[in-house]
Amino acid sequence: MDSSFLLKFFFLHIVLLFGCFGDNRLYASEPQLTLDYYASTCPTLFDIVRKEMECSVLSDPRNAALIVRLHFHDCFIQGCDGSILLDDTYTLKGEKKAATNIHSLKGFEVIDKIKNFVESECPGIVSCADILTIAARDAVILVGGPYWDVPVGRKDSVTASFELANTNLPTPDESLVSIIPKFFYQGLSVTDMVALVGSHTIGMARCQNFRSRIYGDYESTSVKNPISDNQLNNLKSICPPIGGGDNNITAMDYVTPNLFDNSFYQLLLQGEGVLNSDQEMYSSVFGIQTRELVKKYAADSLAFFQQFSDSMVKMGNITNSESFVTGEVRKNCRFVNT
Length: 338
Prior knowledge:
Shape: globular
Largest sheet: 2 strands, antiparallel
Structural class: mainly alpha
Order of helices and strands: HHHHHHHHEHHHEHHHHH
Mean pLDDT: 91
Strand content: under 5%
Strand order of the largest sheet: 1-2
Low-confidence stretches: 3-9, 14-27
Radius of gyration: 20 Å
């Protein structure tokens, strides 16, 4: 098939999908967030979050990835408003049990613990949404990633959206033409997408989410060498084709699983992405821009770090405008104040 036709089809698909979102899109804009929002009301906030994240990551390096994922899932549903932290109640259906979240989100206890310390120091001042955003930054730093300044001043939402949790978040088996509009919807670019997905360098994947990949096109995308073959065999030993094992996990970056670096992109160059959605950025026929970005970040870790920092700030600035009007500072991150 002619490549120009494929390219036109791709962009037509993007335009159609993007248009379907109507006028209710969220935008990673410049909200009323500032770096010194808590300078006088809770000056020790950043120190408290950092110290608790240090203890958490020291006890289990996986906690870094868990907190970053929580932040990502929070921002993509109805803006960075702490809605992902809400438990189900008789009157509120939260987001935790949505299909995209129910088996993939952990780390809530880490945020609970930080919140308790912050409340003891600065009661009723700091939102759970801000705590999660700061904790995600510190999580990245603690496993070798870059630093960035975190604008703060978010309010906690008094609502959640189970429905948006099931539609707004990218899924592991999605194609590139399906995932890109989900980032556009948030006001995030293709460059932001490729950089943010780089957080998978410290992430883990469940067998259920990579089974179709390793028993599908993994062999056709990966380079043929003993290391690659051994990795595929290892993945298959973790994740059988049938008969269970859905919750068995593996690192998405088996080279340096607990270090935030650019080896994730280097694995994509070798065709060894564990998730279909990740490998598509390099291998998809539609991945003209994404392929070049993967190559760039694989070769230049500083370029990746800089873009990741910028994109994390941009994602953190996706706001829920309602929360600035009707929102609150929750006393307990799991429940709306009574």
